[in-house]
Amino acid sequence: MTLDKQCLKKYKEEIVKIEIQLKEKIKENRRLKDNFETLFETLQSQHDKLEKQAVSVQARLTNLQRKQDFTERQKEVELGNIALSTAVPKQKGQQRENKVQKEKKVTYDMFKFSTSSCSYDIMGILLDWICDAHLRYAVTDQPTRAIERFSSTEYILERVLKILPTSVDMLREFPPNNFRISLPCLQFIYWSLINVEQASGQQKSNLSSTLRRLGEELYRSKTVKFMDVSSDKSDYPLSPTKLDKSKDGIYFRSSNQHVRLLSSLIILKTLSQVDLVAHVFDVLKNDLKSDVCKELFLYYQATPVVLQYLKPINKAFMGAAMDIFLQLSADTPFQTPFLESCGNEQWFRTVAMVLRAPTQDNKLLEKLSIILQKLSKFKTNKRFFDVYTIVGIIQEILRGCSTDQAFLALNLKSILFNLTSTGGVQS
């Protein structure tokens, strides 16, 4: 009997030992899996960036021809203005005036044709869209007809891809500070980009040249100025002068917060030039001090737009992105809606990547811990902390905290307390 008890005790000890080893193996495998997912996502981001650059170079060949045509048209405008500003010799006054009027008419007609053609193309596509998806369906008694087709990704993407390339020219030709025209156009472009991004990556790659031109147009804000060049009345009294850079205060440089915010979000989705993106972040941070802009930011569901810059692959902008999130998480009426917009896999996957980064910025971690502490109060977020093993990562960081990181350690302990005590205190 004594021998049997000893064997049984030894057997139980071995089982306990094996269970502990098994748990350690499971924990290690989970950690390896998370590291692999992080590495895969980083490599995928790099691959997407390289693919985008390759497609952009190829698409630029087509775009250069369009740009050359526009440059030639601009030169014609400049030549027309130079001709108009040249003094007319008295002995050839009538002949010179006729020549100037002729050049003026050619320039004006050319500009008018370009603007009209661009406007008519978009108008035709939009009217066809409205008729097909709304008007025709409203008067057609066909119960078997599937209305889902008009809200399907393929249907919307097909229409969007027809309009986006032409919208760049529309932005260039809009009269300055006419928000009744420019604001709906910017809204259409923004929501179109969201739809394109949610579709296949290949579609976005094919649009890389158009997206770059969109961002550049909004950032540089070129507009056409009109000037009366003739004292006598004629059928074409106005002639367009050369394009002026950033002097009219439109789009990204607009005095209207709504227009400026939308332009900033579109630029962040379309451009990658470091100095331009840094400037946009500075403007956006300043604008988000206003409650109006906070409300607009949430209305346009812009958290993912900034979130992409929090990834370690965008190291130069991680601090700027975190500052914006910290602003939105402050105690304001918009705190809860913002925190709810962070309660998803995309946010926590990115946070896990930040926490696992080889080199850590203490200030960035402190700001992130403030937001995570608030998110840990929501019951629905507990599963994201578990799935992405953020609790284990926080415990490791906490063990490595030095004496001068008391604030970070306090926040990390608060996160662990919220998650382990009641599993969150809000629904």
TrEMBL record:
Record keyword Nucleus present: no
Coiled coil start-end: 8-67
Sequence ranges assigned to domain Coiled-coil-domain-containing protein 138 coiled-coil in this UniProt record: 27-75
Record keywords, A-Z: Coiled coil
Pfam entry (one): CCDC138_C
InterPro entries found in the cross-reference section: CCDC138, CCDC138_C, CCDC138_CC
Name of the protein in question: Coiled-coil domain-containing protein 138
Annotated Coiled-coil domain residues: 126-419
